[in-house]
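Methods — Computational structure assignment.
A single polypeptide chain was analysed. Its primary sequence is given first, followed by the predicted tertiary structure written as structure tokens.
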Amino acid sequence: MEALELGDVSVDVVRKNIKNLHLSVHPPTGRVTIAAPARMSPDAIRVFAISKLGWIRRQRTKLSAQLRETPREYIDRESHYLWGRRYLLTVQERDQAPAVIRRHNRLVLGVRPGADVETRAQVMARWYRDQIREALPALLDKWQPVMGVACNRVLIQKMKTQWGSCNAATRNIRLNTELAKKPPECLEYVLVHELTHLREPTHGERFVALLEAQLSGWRSARALLNAAPLAHEDWARSDR
């Protein structure tokens, strides 16, 4: 692995059998990596990295300022959210399959006796994933025909720093499980955003124009989403 020192920014360079440069800023510390074509000259890579210093610093600032929830304990009367609405948690230990049931202003978490925090968290995460799965078909039926695109798969998973992502080559979209906690318009915005990437992979002017043509209120939804915290993340544990 090569290393570039650009003032206060250190960049790790990894050579790969690829055609283009790929720059990444990794949480939680803002470590910077560039995946570079095997035969590209060090000077060309350095020029590229210098041209991206402003973007790198902005990404690092975002990571350091990113709001995160306090750790959840999954105990009675703890606050949890579904589609932007606050619910109080009720935990019931019972000798039945784990489940979550919504009752008025409460979420009832049923777990087997002695279930620890990690087990309770897994039950809740599966339930949130199911909420998005239930909401997706109607949104896909609404937007794919209008936009003239079709994704291959929509994967729902916990994501550390993103609300969604799109792989234009495989036509796969990934959505953050946490979206089930946010107002419904946030899920719709993220899905339309990622579907737009099937027509335009960058975030340039064409992408903005396409997004604006489909979802004129996308800026409001984005602001609402960006003001919402991501889930608490145990980085030391997740990096193992």
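Note: The first strand starts at residue 2 and ends at 6.
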